[in-house]
Amino acid sequence: MAKLLTKISISASLLALSALHAIAQQNPPTGVGASTPPPANPSATLDTGQFVTTSRPHQWRATKLIGLDVLGVDNEKVGDVSEILIDPEGNEVVVVSIGGFLGIAGREVAVPFSAIEWRYGDRPKTRESRTPPPPTSNEVTSRKTVDTTQRGYPDFAVIRTTTNDLKAAPEFKYSRD
Fold this sequence. Notes:
Distance between the termini: 55 Å
Number of strands: 6
Largest sheet: 6 strands, mixed
Strand order of the largest sheet: 4-3-2-1-6-5
CATH class of one domain: Mainly Beta
Structural class: alpha+beta
CATH architecture of one domain: Roll
CATH topology of one domain: SH3 type barrels
């Protein structure tokens, strides 16, 4: 009998909690800290010229850039794009994850968006020698910078530095905002 009463008690408690949850989702918060309702006439706050209805050519979604391989001047993979950061003034930073294996023991370095060259098409072949060419190598500058695939986003990125330079760069740390 005690077990039956316990089961009924637990069932009633769960039913009451789920009802309270449903009521809380339907009623807007009131009092201190409650959000203000939207204006009665939303068009009064925004000019219709402020809306963007479609993307422009070469306007990329950050989700398509995150994860792209980043190659160095020797055409070897030096890392991958792990994050794109934008501040309120529109300044962009690319965070590159280098080293490590499956996200373990790696580190991140950040560079200005303009320091990355975004490329389309097949990745170039790597050289047999591990000695990197100078940054003015024709092979680096001859990669396609125009999207002929009509996909709208690059296939890989190039940074004009070597793996050793990136390993020596200061590690990037996220702020606690």
